[in-house]
C-alpha cells in the first residue's frame, strides 16, 4: 500500500496547524495583558489619588458618592473600585466576613478568568513542540518510505534532503512558538501577582477606613 498521499497530506497540515497555534498564543497573550491592565491602576500615583478621594468621601460618610465614584468611567472596570462597590453593599457585615467576601469575589471574578486563559497558554506551550515532533516523525517516515520504494532505481538525495529539512524545520518552529510563550507566560504571572498584591493592599486600607467610619474606631 502506497502511503505517500497520506504522508503528503499530513506533512502539508503541520505548518498550518503551527500557524494557528502561534496566532492563538499571541492572541491570548495580548488579551490577558490587556485584561490585567484593565483591572489595575496605571501607576501607584493613580491608585493613591483614587484612595485619597475615597477616603475623603468615606470620612464624610458620603457612601453614595463613593459608589458613584467607583462606578464612573475612569474606574468602573478596575478591580478595586468593583470590590469597593461590593463592600458598600454589604457594609453591615462584620469586618472579617466582609474581608472574606471580597477575597472570594476577587478570586472568582478576576483571578479565575485570568487563570483560565493562562491555562490555554500553557496548553499551547505544550502543544507547539508536540506538533514540531509530529512533523519530525512524519518527515523521517517520508524519507525512509522513499528509500524503501526506490532501492532498485536509486534514490535522489534532494528528495531525502527535502523530507529531513521538513522534519527539522517543524521542530524548530515548534520551539520558536513555545519559548517566547513561556517567557510571556512568566511575565504575565508576575503582572497577575502584582495585581493581586496591589488589590489586597488597597482593599485592606479601604476596609480599615470603612471600619473606623462605621464603628468610630471600635472593632466590629
From TrEMBL:
Keyword vocabulary terms for this entry: Cell membrane, Membrane, Protein transport, Transmembrane, Transmembrane helix, Transport
- Assign the protein's first listed, main location to one coarse class: membrane
- Protein family membership: Belongs to the exbB/tolQ family.
Query: What Pfam families has UniProt attached to this entry?
Result: MotA_ExbB
Organism (species):
Schlesneria paludicola
- The MotA/TolQ/ExbB proton channel domain sits at 109-200
This protein's name: MotA/TolQ/ExbB proton channel family protein
* TM annotation in the entry: 14-33, 127-147, 167-188
Topology of this chain in the membrane? Multi-pass membrane protein
InterPro entries linked: ExbB/TolQ_transport, MotA_ExbB_proton_chnl
